[in-house]
Amino acid sequence: MKSILRIKSHLKTRLKELKQEKEKGRKIIGYTPGGYFPEELALAAGAVPVCMIRGGDHSAVDASVTYIDRWLDTFYRAQIGYGTSNEDPYYNIIDILFIPVTDNNNRALSDVLSYHTGIEIFNFGIPHTKNESAHEFYLHGIKRVKRKIEEFTGVEITKNHLNDAIHLCNKERELLKKISLIRKSHPSPISSKDFVMINHASMIIDKNDLVKNLELLVDELQNKEIEDKKQPRILLTGSTLALGDHKILSLIGESGGEVVFEEFAEGIKPYLFKVKTNGDQMEALSEAYFIDRIVPAWFRPGSERLDHLIQLAKDFSVKGVIWYQLLYREAYKIESYYFPEILKKEVGIPMLTLESDYDPSETGQMRTRIETYIDSIGR
Amino acid sequence: MALKSKIVAGIDIGAATAKAVILNESKIIASHVIPTGESVKKAAESVMKQTLDKEGLSMNDISYKIATGYGRRAVSFADEVITEISCHAKGVNMLMPDAQTVIDIGGQDSKVIEISKDGNIGNFVMNDKCAAGTGRFLEVMARVLDSNINEIGSISLNGNEPCQISNTCTVFAESEMVTLRAEGETRENIFAGIHSAMAHRVVIMGNTVGFKKSVVFTGGVARNIGMKKFLQERVGMEIFVPEKPQIIGALGAAIVARNKI
Fold first, then answer.
1. 3 state SS of B246
2. Fewer CB near the terminus (10 Å): N or C of chain B?
3. Could you state, in order of their start, the residue ranges of all structural domains in chain A?
């Protein structure tokens, strides 16, 4: 599909483009994934938001050992590896890094980068419950983010500019949602690899360009003829699905499974919600980004996300759920022990739990587990 | 020709040994086990050839070949590959249709597999990449204590007071052995402790799948009588070991191959 090729090539040349933008005087605003940083605020100040979403690289994980112990989430250890290397093009190009502090893992990233590098860091805390005072706390946090961006860029975020940014991001989310939900049909016209790629791209490339290509993609998908390979449909969920972490999707594909939905706190930008365009803008942002989105596993109670997974499994009529998490992300690990029983009871399907440290040596066993699982659900 | 077309083969290339089974309808007509050695590809060719030679057959006589085991993808002559977990379930199901649980301990993996009523896999669990709870662990311990791997199982049966072994990590356990020996512990008690600790680890892992009657023990380590005893104690029920526990994976592969023709 033309649109997919264009987005892919845009992703490849984005770094060059970012350098040009920077030379023109635009600020490049980095943020960590998890869906708690409203990109609208950076866009409204004329800055370029870029998510630190790359991973899958064991050498970066290894390099982190100099700065932090091993008992930390693999993705954040990789970020520490990239960030402290002085050679990483993305960490080198950002002017500031916003970290919505969700748990100890990205707090460690914040501490290590603050202490060992010259990267300017701005933290804001994310509460772990959805109640009124938590909502107020989050709203307060993104107001601080807004002030910081204004101060940092020297540009006042006007109502009009923020309105434009909200509309643009809403358009992007709406298109991602439309494309994703097409996958309820059998067979799905878009592969998970492609969907994950466009979702990752939405955190890195220019949004106006992306929106055009996503519109084209919707057309292309509607006219696409697809052969039904009758592969078992799979819901893929877990903590983080980073750009460059190809192993899991490749192994599932090679083993004859078809991923039809991805639910990840980090690595898949939340796209099911929409920011209201009437009323107070900051309140609308906080309502969408904090209340409307599905919670990650570290929230209390965690049932909202698990209920969502059950609903997804039913809506997308999957035959299996693959739980792919990174090493030492306890909030997910805890749930991975009891969720299979809930899933079995509610939907009647088994779950496969996999854990990765981005280590190439784990591939063989992971393949054996996935092949066996797909073989057992595929009948 | 009509007869020969019913001959199929399963080849199981494990971390320690390579196995092949030739099946004619439901009858095992030949099987063979060799060490895998350094080349997985060569081991596959060699074990296949030696198994064929037993019955004076050639590769052309085999109508379908399925490879399994960790080296399955390196078996260039296979028509298809399947994981060893599926194959162990199939193999056990053919030999013992009422079996519901398989404990498979090989050279580098240990697995507990639930067989559903239809003979397929219900659920399974597999050890992490470390050598704890595998045949490799026993090999290293046998070497440290200067004993023959084929004898340590029966030696362990003579331990009256199994030592408390706190480490099932191969590296740490090695130094623990050195300490125990220095303290004058008997070989019997040390081996009893090693087998007991390893059985404990496998059973803890398998508890997520559960142990339901009948439980069958397969893989190279199933030839170890001490392991069987300590697993029985931990699981609390009788465990059955097939006559040739090492070839069950290859047998399962051959059964799937038979169903393909």
1. helix
2. N
3. 17-160
CATH tag, A17-160: 3.40.50.11890
**Which residue spans within A131-251 are E strands per DSSP?**
233-240
CA-to-CA distance for B154 and B109, rounded, in angstroms?
22
pLDDT tens-digit readout, B52-83:
999 999 999 999 999 999 999 999 999 999 99
B134, B127 Cβ separation under 8 angstroms:
yes
| B128 close to B243: Cβ distance less than 8 angstroms | no
User: For A48-104, how does the pLDDT look when each residue is reduced to its tens digit (9 = 90+)?
Assistant: 999 999 999 999 999 999 999 999 999 999 999 999 999 999 999 999 999 999 999
Contact between A372 and B124 using a beta-carbon 8 Å cutoff: yes
ipTM above 0.90, yes or no: no
What is the nearest CA distance from B79 to chain A, expressed in angstroms? 16
pTM exceeds 0.95: no
C-alpha dist (Å) from residue A71 to A77, A330, B99, B172 = 9, 10, 40, 20
For testing the chain A interface, which of B124, B130, B134, B207 should be mutated: the one with the most A CBs within 10 Å? B124
Number of DSSP helices (H) and strands (E) in chain B, helices first = 8, 10
For residue A362, the distance in angstroms to the closest alpha carbon of chain B comes to 7
3-state secondary structure of B207: coil
CB-based contact B19:B242 (threshold 8 Å) = no
CB A369 within 8 Å of CB A251? no
Phi, psi angles (nearest 5°) of residue A62: -60, -40
